[in-house]
């Protein structure tokens, strides 16, 4: 028996709460639970944060979310709370070189303003003043005094180590194969390391969540896609690293690298057996480079040194599912629908509340229920074109 | 039923390649040229690309070899370099005569194969660049013949001009005639080191000494004594402790005796590392070809049953990138390996009989020796020596799994974390160390640190080296300017439907508006991550 595994309330190997998925959603949930003294075990099929949680743009500005205010409240505190650096930096400039994009960015500013946060509208000169790598083409943009970015990989590890510091346990390289039920309740999970028992199960397995829920006959409609990013060699730090726009998202890291993503995604089919696909990148990196150069013309000479891809899930309306189910009542589901990194400090708080208190204490999240998809046609993804096309075999 | 396509997805958006050939051969060394010639003679359309002459800016970044700041100003003159390259590879003429399309000064920055998660690629394509623009070429088969590079290990002072690798020295001295040093110390004494010394002599350079960690010279006795006769000793049981620093780089090396004898200093302007060669597998990795550690073939290599096939039916390999033992073999053996790869390609296209499955060329296991070298460097140099120059990560930073110095730590809890605690949490992984310490994350794309970091991880974590997976290679496998990559041809569909993030309108409606009348009027494309 792995020494990291404890027992559930009935003394079976496991834990009081098992969290399936060591991405930021699962890790933050486990951290919040551990802070409340709950005996918690995180299980991941690989290394923590190896999927989308360690491969994203690090953006933390999600005005559309019920969890937005909590996201904004928590990020400036996270380094202290976790005890490890997340590289979080507040503020964000988003700008454009074309009118249509500028209008979109302006309306984002207005939305954020309506939510009670400070922002400025920038003209081209104001952009150039704040963004040394911007050029004559900068038309204007917005300067958000909230939001910002963190380093996804640092944040993942900070959560994981903070969980361990609080006595929580993390079991890596252990795929979960199925959920076990008895008498209308979850009793545990089947894993590559055997059956583990729990009193409550938190499911935060990202794209794989649908497949796991299917093992107890509950349909969670999800489509999975691959998205890419590029990163350059380091260049001197700009005063605000959180600079993007021109159809791409990203940031300058504190090391100085320009890390950006965006553009078309590829819908994929996950293998039935739960094996992961490799996540290759493609020549899309050239098209990302083109837009990064348009955004920051003075960085044209800067060299791209890597690209990568990550897999993310989307629900049919693109909104999260964050719910403690009525049936089985000891199962809490959390799917962030492709926008889950920045929100993770707040998501974990909501999950903690759902698991311990049965309801989210700080905001209404009722619209993030699973029932909204009841009766959705089986071919919903095909109807939207959210499906991989057949692979033509090369000869 | 007409299937619906998501206009914001990548379906149909990547441009068709500029040209499509039967076979793309990457690398115009002995193996690649032989493969290309044989394939063209068999009637296939063949494109042969080679990055030489390499852009001077890349040479300055130690890409693709560890040039160590010892390239002369001549490398700036691309026209002259081109002549040098052509002159140095006589077989190119035969390839040209056979009808091979040859592109010199052209590097391949990625190989992309359609697969379960890349169905929308316009077929199998390779990304190419001539340092002015980027484009793609389609192929039915690819032969990768991109050779080997130096195994790099550090000592104090290795992060300055004058410390370089033997493969880089061969490129500068033999291929470019542009080596800018006069007096060398060579670290190592096997055939690679001896060949380096012999080439240096032929170029009229001075050699101060060969330094060998083992108790006896590793190369053939005859060649060792030939060197001794010319006054070049092989100093055995010794290791380089540090290199002296001067305004133009190395001023000499301090060597330490492994039996504790006194250290001494030898004056030189160049230290040439000739500890070992590593197969260059970066293009295999971007293609998703399965890799495996095979120490008899020089490290991580493409898995192969016959020495030239790989785990992908479209991808073949020839020469040193399949096994470094070939590096030490004769030119005719290397050419034969190239022709063997050509025959495997022809067989895969139904134009020749299948190959016998004789195993890949092998060498004696090099890993044990490389490890002895690393241990010697560690015992004399200590922990305050760089493991990764680009990101300024020392051995101590690596073993302590420390965050980079520019990140202030909000508590002292990190001090309880190190390689041993990480190993207790799960198998050590080089890619994870990259994320945590930034080791191997710099502009040289880890060419200077990959192997020494992996060795240090195994030693520090107390785990077998083969338990540490190879750190992934990512496109572009050459550091390329944004302005160059930006020239990649873009389809109208890509330009017209470029989403920031999925473009699911309902995703970005503020929560309070969901289910209200305002929801319907909220503007589309509000998206931002
Ligand atoms: C390129 C890219 C850029 C992005 N940019 C941003 C951004 O700027 N801002 C933002 O907020 N979001 C961004 N995202 C989205 C964000 O990364 C994800 O929404 C978020 O990481 C989801 O976290 P998660 O923990 O829910 O899921 P995941 O990170 O997918 O984690 C799920 C975990 O579950 C594990 N798992 C799955 N199945 C099993 C099983 N059967 N057994 C055991 N373990 C299992 C996986 O190994 C994985 O570690 C981006 C995503 C990508 C790919």
Question: What composes the largest sheet of chain A?
Answer: 9 strands, mixed
CATH topology grouping of the domain at 19-51 and 106-149 and 278-348 in chain B: FAD/NAD(P)-binding domain
Helicity range of chain A = 10-25%
SSE class of chain A: alpha/beta
CATH topology (fold) name of the domain at 14-58 and 153-221 and 319-375 in chain A: FAD/NAD(P)-binding domain
* Distinct small molecules bound, one entry per kind: flavin-adenine dinucleotide
Biggest sheet statistics of chain B? 7 strands, mixed
- Strand portion of chain A: 25-35%
Number of helices of chain B: 18
- Report low-confidence residues of chain A grouped into runs of 5 or more: none
Oligomer type: heterodimer
Alpha carbon gap, first and last residue of chain B = 35 Å
What is the ordering of alpha helices and beta strands of chain A? EEHEHHEHEHEHEEEEHEEEEEHEEEHH
How does the helix and strand content of chain B classify structurally?
A: alpha/beta
β-strand number of chain B: 22
> Tell me, what's the shape of chain A?
globular
Fourth-level CATH superfamily of the domain at 14-58 and 153-221 and 319-375 in chain A = FAD/NAD(P)-binding domain
Q: Report low-confidence residues of chain B grouped into runs of 5 or more.
A: none
| CATH domain class name of the domain at 19-51 and 106-149 and 278-348 in chain B | Alpha Beta
Rg of chain A: 21 Å
Individual helix count of chain A = 10
Structure notes:
The complex is a heterodimer of chains A (395) and B (529). With 395 residues, chain A is an alpha/beta fold. Among the domains of chain A are: 171 residues, FAD/NAD(P)-binding domain (3-Layer(bba) Sandwich), CATH 3.50.50; 55 residues, no CATH class. Helices cover 25% and strands 28% of the residues of chain A. Chain A contains 10 helices and 18 strands. In chain A, helix 1 runs parallel beside helix 6 and helix 2 crosses helix 9. The longest helix of chain A is centred in the N-terminal third of the chain and has 16 residues. In chain B, a hairpin with a 6-residue loop joins strand 13 and strand 14. In chain B, 29% of the residues lie in helices and 20% in strands. Chain B is of the alpha/beta class and 529 residues long. Among the domains of chain B are: 148 residues, FAD/NAD(P)-binding domain (3-Layer(bba) Sandwich), CATH 3.50.50.60; 116 residues, no CATH class; 30 residues, no CATH class. In chain B, strands 1, 2, 3, 4, 5, 6 and 19 form a 7-stranded mixed β-sheet that branches. Strand 16 of chain A pairs antiparallel with strand 22 of chain B, so a sheet runs across the interface. The complex binds flavin-adenine dinucleotide. The site of flavin-adenine dinucleotide has 40 residues of chain A, from helix 1, strand 11 and strand 16.
């Amino acid at each position: 028996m792995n020494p990291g595994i404890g027992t559930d309330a009935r003394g079976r190997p496991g834990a009081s709460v098992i969290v399936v998925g060591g991405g930021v959603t699962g890790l933050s949930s486990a951290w919040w639970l551990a802070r409340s003294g709950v005996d918690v075990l995180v299980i991941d099929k690989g290394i923590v944060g190896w999927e989308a949680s360690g491969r994203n743009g690090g953006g933390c500005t999600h005005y559309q979310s019920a969890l937005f205010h909590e996201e904004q409240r928590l990020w400036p505190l996270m380094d202290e709370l976790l005890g490890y650096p997340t590289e979080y930096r507040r503020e964000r400039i988003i700008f454009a070189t074309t009118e249509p994009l500028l209008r979109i960015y302006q309306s984002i500013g207005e939305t954020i303003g309506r939510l009670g946060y400070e922002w400025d509208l920038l003209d081209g000169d104001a952009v150039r003043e704040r963004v040394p790598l911007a050029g004559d083409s900068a038309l204007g943009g917005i300067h958000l005094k909230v939001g910002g970015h963190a380093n996804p990989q640092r944040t993942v590890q900070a959560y994981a180590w903070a969980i361990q510091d609080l006595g929580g346990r993390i079991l890596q390289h252990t795929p979960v194969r199925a959920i076990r039920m008895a008498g209308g309740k979850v009793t545990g999970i089947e894993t590559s390391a055997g059956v583990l028992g729990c009193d409550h199960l938190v499911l935060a397995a990202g794209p794989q969540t649908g497949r796991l829920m299917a093992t107890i006959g509950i349909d969670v409609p999800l489509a999975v896609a691959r998205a890419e990013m590029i990163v350059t060699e380091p260049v001197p730090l700009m005063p605000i690293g959180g600079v993007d726009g021109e159809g791409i998202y990203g940031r300058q890291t504190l090391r100085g690298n320009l890390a950006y993503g965006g553009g078309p995604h590829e819908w994929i089919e996950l293998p039935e057996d739960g094996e992961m696909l490799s996540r290759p990148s493609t020549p899309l990196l050239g098209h990302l480079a083109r837009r990064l150069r348009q955004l920051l013309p003075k960085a044209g000479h800067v060299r791209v040194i890597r690209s990568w891809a990550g897999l993310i899930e989307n629900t049919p309306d693109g909104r999260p599912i964050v719910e403690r189910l009525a049936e089985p009542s000891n199962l809490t589901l959390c799917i962030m629908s492709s926008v889950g990194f920045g929100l993770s400090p707040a998501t974990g708080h909501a999950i903690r509340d759902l698991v311990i208190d049965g309801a989210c204490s700080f905001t209404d999240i009722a619209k993030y229920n699973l029932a909204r998809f009841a009766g959705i046609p089986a071919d919903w993804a095909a109807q939207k074109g959210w499906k991989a096309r057949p692979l033509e075999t090369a000869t | 039923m007409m299937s619906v396509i998501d206009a914001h997805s990548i379906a149909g958006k990547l441009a068709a390649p500029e040209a499509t050939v039967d076979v793309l051969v990457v690398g115009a060394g002995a193996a690649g040229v032989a493969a290309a010639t044989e394939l063209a003679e068999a009637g296939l359309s063949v494109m042969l690309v080679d990055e030489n002459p390499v852009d001077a800016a890349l040479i300055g970044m130690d890409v693709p070899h560890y040039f160590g700041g010892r390239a002369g100003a001549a490398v700036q003159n691309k026209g002259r370099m081109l002549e040098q390259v052509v002159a140095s590879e006589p077989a190119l003429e035969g390839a040209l005569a056979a009808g091979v399309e040859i592109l010199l000064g052209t590097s391949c920055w990625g190989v992309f194969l359609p697969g379960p998660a890349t169905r929308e690629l316009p077929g199998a394509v390779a990304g190419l660049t001539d340092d002015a623009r980027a484009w793609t070429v389609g192929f039915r088969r690819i032969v990768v013949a991109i050779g080997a590079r130096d195994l790099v290990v550090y000592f104090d002072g290795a992060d300055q001009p004058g410390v370089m690798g033997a493969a880089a020295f061969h490129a500068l001295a033999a291929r470019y005639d542009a080596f800018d040093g006069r007096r060398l110390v060579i670290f190592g004494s096997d055939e690679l080191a001896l060949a380096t010394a012999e080439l240096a002599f032929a170029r009229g350079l001075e050699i101060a000494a060969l330094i060998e960690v083992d108790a006896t010279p590793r190369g053939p006795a005859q060649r060792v004594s030939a060197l001794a006769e010319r006054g070049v000793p092989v100093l055995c049981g010794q290791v380089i402790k540090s290199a002296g620093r001067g305004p133009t780089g190395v001023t000499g090396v301090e060597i330490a005796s492994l039996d504790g004898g006194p250290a001494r200093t030898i004056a030189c302007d160049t230290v040439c590392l000739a500890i070992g060669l590593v197969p260059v597998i970066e293009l295999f990795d971007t293609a998703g070809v399965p890799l495996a550690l095979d120490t008899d073939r020089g490290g991580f290599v493409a898995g192969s049953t016959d020495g030239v096939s790989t785990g992908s039916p479209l991808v073949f390999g020839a020469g040193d990138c399949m096994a470094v033992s070939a590096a030490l073999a004769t030119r005719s053996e290397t050419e034969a390996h190239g022709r063997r790869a050509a025959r495997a390609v022809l067989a895969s296209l139904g134009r020749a009989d299948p190959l016998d499955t004789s195993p890949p060329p092998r060498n004696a296991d090099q890993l044990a020796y490389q490890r002895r070298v690393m241990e010697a460097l560690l015992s004399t140099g200590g922990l305050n020596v760089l493991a990764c120059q680009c990101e300024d990560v020392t051995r101590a930073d690596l073993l302590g799994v420390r965050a980079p110095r520019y990140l202030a730590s909000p508590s002292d809890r990190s001090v309880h974390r190190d390689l041993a605690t990480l190993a207790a949490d799960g198998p050590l992984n080089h890619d994870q160390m990259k994320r945590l310490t930034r080791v191997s994350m710099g502009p040289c794309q880890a060419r200077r640190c990959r192997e020494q970091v992996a060795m240090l991880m195994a030693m520090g974590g107390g785990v077998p080296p083969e338990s540490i997976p190879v750190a992934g290679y990512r496109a572009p496998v050459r550091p390329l300017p944004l302005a160059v990559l930006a020239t990649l041809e873009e389809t109208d569909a890509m330009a017209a439907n470029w989403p920031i993030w999925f473009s699911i309108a309902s995703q970005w409606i503020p929560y309070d508006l969901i289910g209200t009348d305002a929801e319907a009027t909220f503007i589309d494309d509000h998206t931002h991550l």
